[in-house]
Amino acid sequence: MTPFLDLRAQYRAIGPDLERAVISTMRAGTFVLGEPVERFEADFARYCGTSFAVAVNSGTSAIHLALLAAGIGPGDEVITVSATFVATTAAIVNAGATPVFVDIDPVTWTMRPDLIAAKVTSRTKAIMPVHLHGRLADMAAITALAQRFGLVVIEDAAQAHGAERAGVRAGAFGDIGCFSFYPGKNLGACGEGGAITTNRADIAAAVRSLRDWGQEGKYNHVRQGFNFRMDAIQGAILGVKLPRLDEWNGARRRIANGYGRALSSRVSVPSGPIGMDHACHVYAIRVPDRDAIRAGLDEAGIATGIHYPCPVHLQPAYRWLGYGAGDLPQSEALARETLSLPLYPELPSDDVDAVITALTTLTAERLARTA
Ligand SMILES: *Cc1c(COP(=O)(O)O)cnc(C)c1O
Fold first, then answer.
1. How do residues 33-60 score in pLDDT, each as one tens digit?
2. Which ligand 1 atom is the nearest neighbour of the CA of 84?
3. Is 158 in the pocket of ligand 1 (CB under 6 A)?
4. Angle, nearest 10°, between helix axes 87-94 and 59-69?
């Protein structure tokens, strides 16, 4: 069986380093925040090219606190996308704000900037693009629009650690970047984790306070806060992994481009060649007969994923937002056709070949049937 993702492969490669970092953190008796988290925050800010990084307990918390730190809450609208993991919308709603969806570009699958202006109202406070699958959204156009309308830009960079365009990395384009360190992300903890990045000292200070009961100084609670702190052990683990991120992303891109070269004549693949502006968190093809192709791959021993089978605006939990089928045609088409192939830095080349062979056979059979 070719797994979709094998986290044990990474552990085999760097396990001893991780274990040393965990044991020394345990022996130091530091369990929440503390020196390992502070060191990781400094390293991650330097990596992203921002003045500050503030670590929290998940990517969802990072988005939630980014919004609160920017002063966004009930009555405010945030322009975002529906073609994303549910957490983007959940965090906006958790902050008390209202998500307003725009459709995605059919080629990049990220937010269409030309649809934003029509959605801006007197209540709009922010634009939250998602770097879906690790591909950077059109940040030049989005930040220009934000400037024109006086809006904050908050990047959902939970899938895009290390993606860069013209020397600027994910998390450094907008006012605030939000990252997840869920184990399967390009930079993953051994448990939950997240962070915000920013150049604004006021935002960094507010998130530091909000994640820790709204404190400014011990037992001085100046804000309605949360327990969204990062564990010391996760900070230590992320500190060990961060120096390897570029190498891992490079391996992801090489595999993705291999898929693209082999498959582009048979199925719709991400527009390529894939470069530095794509962190290749997910490599998804588009096929009209997605469920049949998926079943065929499963029969051939190849596990796949679907990111994501239903756009957020059609999820039962968000029916109250008032959207219906047909409102976001490109987002809905992506959900119907998208199929994610196995992709992780250590994916053996034999497995890559097996995926390509199986897809080649399946699409040839489809052609023969329709001929
Ligand atoms: C993973 C993810 C999140 C949420 O991160 P968690 O750490 O799981 O809370 C948010 N947005 C996107 C696009 C994600 O992929």
1. 999 999 999 999 999 999 999 999 999 9
2. 13
3. yes
4. 40
282 and 143, same domain (yes or no)? no
Q: Specify the ligand 1 atom closest to the Cα of 192.
A: 7
The 10s digit of each residue's pLDDT in 178-226 is 999 999 999 999 999 999 999 999 999 999 999 999 999 999 999 999 9
Q: What is the pTM of this model?
A: 0.98
| Residue to substitute in 56, 64, 159 for testing ligand 1 pocket (most ligand atoms within 8 angstroms of CB) | 159
> Does 214 share its domain with 280?
no
Are 237 and 259 found together in one domain?
A: no
Could you tell me which residues are beta bridge partners of residue 101?
A: 80
Which amino acid is present at 62? A
Q: Is residue 2 part of a domain?
A: no
One domain for residues 232 and 114: yes
Domain count, the chain: 2
Q: 58: Cβ below 6 Å to ligand 1?
A: yes
Whether residue 185 sits in one domain with residue 160? yes
Whether 156 lines ligand 1, by a CB cut-off of 6 Å, is yes
Domain that holds residue 298: 245-370
Residue 345: is its pLDDT beyond 80?
yes
Percentage, residues of the chain above pLDDT 90: 97
Cα of 62 vs centre of ligand 1, distance in Å, is 9
